[in-house]
Amino acid sequence: MPSFDSLGSQFEHSGRSIWRTICPDCSPGRHKENVNLPVLSWSRGDLGPVYHCHHCGSKGVVLPPKDNYRNVYEYRERKSEVIDLSDLDFLFDNDPPVPAAVIDPIPAQPTVEVKPERKLMQQHLDYLLRRGISEETADLGRLSSTRKFLRSGGGDQEVIAFPFYDLDGNLASSKYRSSATKAFAQDTGAGGLLYGLHQKFDTTRPLVICEGEMDAVSVAQAGIPNWVSVPAGAPVKAEKGNSQRFSWIAELEEFLGRFSMYVLCVDADTPGKNLGEELARRLGRSRCMSVAYPSDSKDANDVLVKHGQDVLRQVLLDARPIPLTALHTADHYADQVMDLFIKGDGRGESTGFAGVDQLYTVARGQMTVVTGIPSSGKSNFLDQIMVNLAHREGWKFAIASMENEPAKHISKLSEMHIKKPFYNQWPGSMTKSEAQAEIAWCHKHFTFIDFASSRELPTVDAMLDRANAAVLRYGVDGLVIDPYNCLDLGRSQTQSETESVSLMLSKVSAFAKASNVHVWFVAHPAKMMNQGTTPIVPGGYEISGSAHWYNKTDCGLTVHRKDQDGYVELHVWKCRFKWVGKQGMTRLKYDIPTGTYYEII
User: Fold this and answer.
1) What is the dotted CATH code of the domain comprising 365-599?
2) pLDDT of residue 562
3) What number of H helices and E strands is found in the chain?
């Protein structure tokens, strides 16, 4: 029986994004006919191949060999990061059911045979009727009965099939639900689709997006058209890197664009609120409406069962736009306030450096301006923050780096992530397979806004148009604009640079708040000022163009390189909110071969 390490090595070199094998922990002791059924899922993680057995629950990370690290301390430090495996489950939230495949050699991905369904059995019609769903509505939803083995409970049994069709009318996959228990199963192929795409849509009316299939057919029962359900339900926690759950948004972008409004019919619990918030963030809050259920109901089907289809219809018709005005009561912010209370200090995400976190953290919906004299490492330090957030928190970024070619930028980000030089002129540089793995990691976390590849001017509006698309398609958490002076402000003859900068910063700040992303601006100082032969550390008021760089930003940083002693100083000259950070200075050590920053111990 192969070990986890050997299986991880096979998976690492296979180039696959997901793989199924038999489990070394439980398969040897399973005396069943299907003893070789591959129940062990493999996925790519930041630290190495991640495995999770759906039979015995074994899970973990296979780290690279010790000799891949520069020293034993780095190995131990990385190994310590995988001790707590409690949050690995999100990697397999959208896992397909286990196919009957062999593992020697690494198998090709099996195609799923979607078996023809049968009409609904009487026991399933009775179950749906108890849930308020008539036979006619079940036909609208194309529900049927079939036989399915449910690994999560009940074994082989008769189940209700919810079919997932693509926009061409082809049956792509199905979900299966037991009427006796809450057990369910799902074919592969539904990740980029919505349940309900088989119906004829009226694009003059809102699209009703539900959390589950039963809620979707409940909306149909209430006589409301354009009902669909997301394929993977709601996240238990606010999304942190598992944007595969929302892959359908990018896949169905053209279809979604046909509707001017969306009604978010999600559950009235924490996961439902997480789902609603992420949908509103990606689809645009100005185009989303929310529903308010009766106090004794948690979702659409609950309303249907307890109050009937007329009340559910009215709940949906009474959907109201998500508030965008500037006037709210305290109740509107209750959840956000409690989030601050639970978190304890209201601080943003960690930069990855304890010393920097004392002065500056990264809060969503805010804007940071980064400045410094030429060749001080402004862009490089910002790259380090992005890599740290991607590695630790699963963040995704849209990068508009007008002075950095994307290919070379990816090589820099790869160096920072793996902590090895990209180019082989440096000792200990990364191998070809490591470089390929880092490119895959960058693909997962970074999107590039590259105006050099088009004939379009990099105007502020064009930039924000691409940034909005990145939020919609990829769910980015951060936007980097580097540097400001490469943007075309579109100034009129009567408009001063100060007025142009003020308008630009207002637009970018509004985007940050509406999309709940953090925006970093890199801006050069107006001119170098010296005190004798020593350059003066520039602040917000020394940035070229306008004092608004200081006035309108939430946070302001200056990166100042001290070449004579090998240190880099980080000066924080503004933090609008005391719980995010404070003014001050800290120092980091800079490693030239990898372009990486380290804490000074």
Assistant:
1) 3.40.50.300
2) 73
3) 18, 24
pLDDT digits (tens, 9 = 90+) for 342-380: 655 567 899 999 999 999 999 999 999 999 988 888 999
Per-residue pLDDT at 46: 62
- CATH number for the 122-321 domain, one of 2.160.10.10, 3.30.460.10, 3.30.930.10, 3.40.1360.10? 3.40.1360.10
CA–CA gap between residue 429 and residue 151 (Å, rounded): 45
Token pair listed for 115: 């078996």
Sequence spans of domains, the chain: 4-92, 122-321, 365-599
**Do the two domains 122-321 and 365-599 of this chain adopt the same fold?**
no
Q: Is 481 helix (H, G, I), strand (E, B) or coil?
A: strand
Residue with tokens 């769910």: 475
Alpha-carbon distances, residue 239 vs 90, 442, 572 (angstroms) = 9, 19, 29
Top pLDDT among 529 and 498 is at: 498
Residue with tokens 């189940």: 159
The residues pairing with 12 across neighbouring beta strands, listed in sequence order, are none
Closest by Cα among 2, 42, 48 to 25 = 2
Q: Which of 65-74, 367-376, 523-532 is least confident?
A: 65-74
CA distance 4 to 24: 7
